[in-house]
Automatic annotation (TrEMBL):
Keywords: Glutamine amidotransferase
Record protein name field: Glutamine amidotransferase
Keyword Lyase: no
Listed InterPro entries: ChyE-like, Class_I_gatase-like, GATASE
Gene3D superfamilies linked to this entry: 3.40.50.880
Pfam family, one: GATase
Classification via PANTHER family: GLUTAMINE AMIDOTRANSFERASE YLR126C-RELATED
Keyword Transcription regulation: no
Domain Glutamine amidotransferase, residue spans: 48-192
């Protein structure tokens, strides 16, 4: 099988390594089958899509809607590299799955309106499949309403015409969409479990996701309801797109 590629942007080793371990767990892939590139540490370089089964983009500290002058040189480079890669991914309708930061990369590339209107605190929310989502192969095994982990400072306010809305939420209307047949993005985190999101809460305390005195409150918020279905989306993606 050709490997999958995970593009990561987390500078802190603990959540970065935990993210990779969680992607391995929920995709069912072995380390040799999921190659990680940490874009915050080094340039992406040349990517030949024919070498890969598909591409994942994980979450991270960057916001597509940040003012250009507020973005670091690293963020500007990462955005250029992912946008350039998406030029070919979208043109070829190549298997791609972006989670959280990944939805911003695809959304920005396709001309979505992205801002802080529908930001969500770190928590568990209910996500509903749309009619298109109910017939999409990645969501076929999920109930019409399922729970998911979220926590983001920006979100898509207006989808571009090229996107098909697959899932929505009460506080954030765009939770999942597809471009073409094979390019997917989610606002929620399908790669997370309670331990994984708790690790991130502790590491990113003080990064603006919640107030300084709300650590315990936030840790409790991600335990208010079980999240049991979203990880299957990643495994289904792998099963659908794994190439010999």
């Amino acid at each position: 099988m050709k490997p999958f590629l995970l593009l990561a942007t987390r500078a802190e080793d603990v959540p970065a390594d935990d993210e990779y371990a969680l992607f391995l767990r929920f995709t069912g892939l072995e380390p040799r089958q999921l190659v990680r590139r940490r874009l915050e540490a080094e340039p992406l370089g040349e990517i030949d899509l024919d070498d890969w089964s598909g591409i994942f983009v994980g979450g991270g500290p960057f916001n597509a809607s940040d003012a250009p002058e507020r973005k670091s040189a690293v963020q500007h480079r990462v955005e250029r590299e992912i946008s350039g890669l998406l030029d070919e991914v979208v043109a070829r309708d190549f298997p791609f799955f972006g989670a959280c930061y990944g939805i911003g990369t695809v959304g920005a590339h396709q001309g979505a309106v992205i801002d802080s209107t529908y930001r969500e605190p770190i928590s568990v929310v209910e996500v509903s499949r749309t009619a298109a989502g109910a017939s999409d192969p990645l969501l076929a095994g999920l109930p019409d309403v399922f729970t998911a982990f979220v926590g983001h400072k920006e979100a898509i306010t207006v989808l571009p015409p090229s996107a098909t809305l697959l899932a929505c939420g009460a506080a954030c209307p765009v939770q999942m969409f597809r471009v073409g047949r094979n390019v997917y993005a989610t606002q929620f985190h399908p790669e997370l479990d309670v331990d994984g999101i708790s690790t991130r809460i502790r590491v990113y305390a003080g990064h603006g996701y919640f107030a300084a005195d709300e650590l315990e409150l936030t840790l409790g918020a991600v335990r208010r309801a079980p999240v049991t279905h979203t990880g299957t989306i990643l495994r289904t993606f792998v099963e659908r797109y794994a190439r010999p």
